Amino acid sequence: MQTGKVILVVGGTSGIGSATAQLAAERGYTVVIAGRDPQKAAQVMKAIKEKGALAHFLQTDISDSRQVAHLVDEVVRLYGRMDAACNSAALDEGVGVALADVEEEAYDYQMGVNLKGIWLCMKYQIRQMLKQGGGSLVNVSSINGLGGAQGASIYSAAKSGMLGLTKSAAQEYATAGIRINALCAGAFKTPMLENVFKKANPDNPSQVEEQYKAFIPMQRIGHPSEAAEAILWLLSDQASYITGHSMIIDGGFSSSFR
Ligand SMILES: NC(=O)c1ccc[n+]([C@@H]2O[C@H](COP(=O)([O-])OP(=O)(O)OC[C@H]3O[C@@H](n4cnc5c(N)ncnc54)[C@H](OP(=O)(O)O)[C@@H]3O)[C@@H](O)[C@H]2O)c1
């Protein structure tokens, strides 16, 4: 239990972020979720409050530096500190499009959220953690950040970039009591993955899902709660000697080529 600790989950309105926020509530954290969509947030907030946890939603677009700075200020104004942060927000813009066909606008939009947005989150979260004398941070990257994938060039570039941010910052702030790690996720059953399957075959997305599963040694897609377990462990004191790590969680998918 992390009773009394405050966690900010950026991208907590859906998928892996939502599962992380809910599990954190069960583990005794006070939870702040951030994202753009108040309707999605309302469902997550209901689930968290049913667990009896203190929780708050702060509407934020992480591509805007002023909104990110305000987000961290608000967490501190509400709860006094921010012990842990999980940056799970991302877009699948440009996924399914080969590199030479990606429009410049799509590149800028996707990078503005998936890479610059995560950098902005880290920047303001770390500034706060320096002020309070420590903290722990997990960025949700992807196995696409370790290797590339067809139709995922700009997504992979952002996810690789996140690993660079994670490892560099982990070294910069290791003596300040701030641990910074990443999760390299394989396939998890979330609205983003469902959308990717739909884009690949709008008439029969479940066929794409079945084909994908066949490549996974465990022969199944992960449940978001399984990613949440790993994130909360990395954030917890149980992982006290771990920083700059990229933890792979993919049902064995990438094990044959690493
Ligand atoms: N699912 C998978 O198979 C898989 C695999 C590898 C890696 N990942 C990574 O896991 C993380 C979570 O993805 P997911 O599958 O859980 O996707 P998801 O269900 O689509 O959730 C994405 C989250 O990002 C938030 N978000 C998007 N743009 C934002 C912005 N500009 N500002 C603030 N929040 C924003 C969304 O909130 P709003 O809509 O409320 O803004 C939502 O909460 C992502 O980093 C993704 O790349 C997922």
Summarize the structure.
The chain has 258 residues and is α/β, with parallel strands linked by helices. It is 47% helix and 16% strand.
Explained architecture:
The protein has 258 residues and is of the alpha/beta class. It has a single domain (6-257), classed as NAD(P)-binding Rossmann-like Domain (Rossmann fold), CATH 3.40.50.720. It has helices at residues 15-26, 38-50, 65-79, 104-114, 116-132, 153-172, 191-200, 205-214, 224-235, and strands at residues 6-10, 30-35, 55-59, 84-87, 135-142, 178-185, 246-249. Strand 5 (135-142), helix 6 (153-172) and strand 6 (178-185) form a beta-alpha-beta unit. Helix 1 (15-26) runs parallel beside helix 2, helix 1 packs across helix 9 and helix 3 runs parallel beside helix 5. The longest helix is centred in the middle third of the chain and has 20 residues, at 153-172. It starts with 5 loop residues before the first strand and ends in a 9-residue tail after the last strand. The site of NADP nicotinamide-adenine-dinucleotide phosphate (NAP) has 29 residues, from helix 1, strand 5 and helix 7. NADP nicotinamide-adenine-dinucleotide phosphate (NAP) binds at residues 11, 13-17, 35-37, 40, 60-63, 88-91, 113, 117, 140, 142, 185, 187-188, 190-193.
